[in-house]
UniProtKB/TrEMBL annotation:
Keyword set, alphabetical order: Membrane, Transmembrane, Transmembrane helix
Residue stretches making up the EamA domain: 8-140, 150-278
Organism, scientific name: Rubellimicrobium thermophilum DSM 16684
PANTHER family membership: ACYL-MALONYL CONDENSING ENZYME-RELATED, BLR2811 PROTEIN
Lineage, highest ranks first: Bacteria, Pseudomonadati, Pseudomonadota, Alphaproteobacteria, Rhodobacterales
The protein's name: Putative permease, DMT superfamily
Length: 299
């Protein structure tokens, strides 16, 4: 497209996935101290408030009109499931390993797109799937020391994220990016607000944690905004592989924040998942129009 600036787009996508990785670290810190639905209720409240402030003045009532409302709500609900699943996973597991498992989702979407959307997968794509699965097996191998409960929650997050991304592809044909983002934020807010009476903190939240809760909402929202802006500056084929830098950010920030360094086999697995995602993205991004609402990571 005329007027696009690929290097600016790459910079924006790298900044976006850095925001997502930071939000994963903050989520791990907060969910170790507070009920997961409480943390997510605050996050989605901030997210919804910012998105409405951005889009409502120009979009008006049209922002809430969708052609396939049922699927829009299913998509939003699937991201809420992914959010609570990754929050619970991060309670039990390190950041890097958790996010690497979650990044099975794009590979699952590539497989599901064959029967559901009629897309074709090149031999390189199937090789990427096998490489990614092998990498995850290295991460979750018996004797690796990871919590079975944490692995189960991470796999649930990957499954819910796959549904979310699949519906993002489908709905991008009929719905606006702004409507999808706002519906997702409002649905998440409604779901976690409903759970809030059963998950209120049993003590006063200290100022540092209030700042962390606020920061989590800001980081997640800023990540989405930067991600959307990146795709205005560069084509999907250029940007898609850089989404997987989030795995590197997550492992590095997890080490800095919590002192956890993956063991050599787990680190090899994370590298394999990263390379598999990049290979798959290089192949698939050239064949479809991107939807900026189809963000990577754990939601």
């Amino acid at each position: 497209m005329d007027g696009q600036q690929p290097w600016r787009g790459i910079g924006l996508i790298l900044a976006a996935v850095f925001m997502f990785a930071l939000s994963d670290v903050v989520t791990k810190y907060l969910t170790a101290r507070w009920p997961v639905p409480f943390v997510l209720a605050v996050r989605y409240l901030i997210n919804a408030t910012i998105l409405l402030a951005i889009y409502l003045p120009t979009g008006g009532a049209a922002l809430f009109r969708t052609r396939r409302t049922g699927l829009v709500l299913v998509r939003a609900g699937s991201l809420s499931v992914a959010s609570i699943a990754v929050g619970l996973a991060l309670r039990h597991m390190p950041v890097g390993e958790t996010i690497a498992i979650v990044y099975l989702a794009p590979l699952a979407v590539m497989i599901l797109a064959v029967p559901l959307l009629g897309e074709r997968v090149a031999p390189l794509g199937w090789a990427a799937v096998m490489l990614g699965l092998a990498g995850v097996l290295l991460i979750v191998r018996p004797g690796g020391g990871l919590s079975a409960q944490g692995v189960a929650f991470a796999l649930l997050c990957a499954a819910a994220t796959a549904v979310y991304q699949m519906l993002s592809r489908l709905l991008s044909r009929t719905e606006s990016t702004q409507a999808l983002l706002v519906f997702t934020a409002l649905a998440g807010l409604a779901i976690f607000a409903a759970l809030l009476p059963f998950n209120l903190p049993d003590r006063a939240v200290p100022p540092f944690d209030i700042a962390a809760l606020t920061g989590l909402g800001l980081l997640a929202t800023l990540g989405h905004v930067l991600f959307t802006a990146a795709y205005r500056e560069a084509p999907a084929a250029t940007l898609a592989p850089f989404n997987y830098v989030q795995l590197i950010w997550s492992a590095g920030l997890g080490w800095l924040a919590f002192g956890h360094l993956p063991d050599p086999l787990a680190l090899a697995g994370i590298v394999m998942v990263t390379l598999a995602g990049m290979l798959a993205a290089l192949g698939s991004a050239r064949g479809r129009r991107p939807n900026p609402a189809d963000t990577p990571g754990s939601g």
